[in-house]
UniProtKB/TrEMBL annotation:
InterPro entries: Glyas_Bleomycin-R_OHBP_Dase, MeMalonyl-CoA_epimerase, MMCE/EMCE_epimerase, VOC_core
Residue ranges of domain VOC in the record: 58-187
NCBIfam families: metmalonyl_epim
Species annotation: Bos taurus
Name of the protein in its database record: Methylmalonyl-CoA epimerase, mitochondrial
The keyword Isomerase is assigned to this record: yes
Amino acid sequence: MQFFHSSEQETERVTTRLEIELRHTGLFPRLRTPVSTVRTSASLSSHPGAGPVWNLGRLNHVAVAVPDLEKARAFYKNVLGAEVGEPVPLPEHGVSVVFVNLGNTKMELLHPLGSDSPIAGFLKKNKAGGMHHVCIEVDNINVAVMDLKEKKIRILSEEAKIGAHGKPVIFLHPSDCGGVLVELEQA
């Protein structure tokens, strides 16, 4: 009875299977299959040449709605040891924000500012808070808006507004984005 196969083919098969298993665990990032971080609208369109070209960039932040901004701020700063900014009121968006620097991206802690804040409505449905949206950078927000409108993706405002980073932003309707509220920000 032979317990080990000595053929090169069998060794290669076992090694390949092991690499696949390790990639999925996330413990060995060098074994992960590289994923492209930039896509063009042409790659998203149903036929070539449809619409202007714009590039999707890096994840800028993940926004989390919180019922108590100071408590959330203290948790990320004092418990997790993150670099945490000061609260910034954004009355034009109906929120106060605090950015948590994570090195490769940020978290944006959101708290309602005023009774008609969209975050107030979110927190009524989600008392403990939770993930509100993801923000992805684009290289040309105006071209992206035109292209997305042509593709029947609903945008939650008539035009881009200035966001928390002082750059133009738009929000895409979650029903058109797999249930996720997506913010696009000019890079």
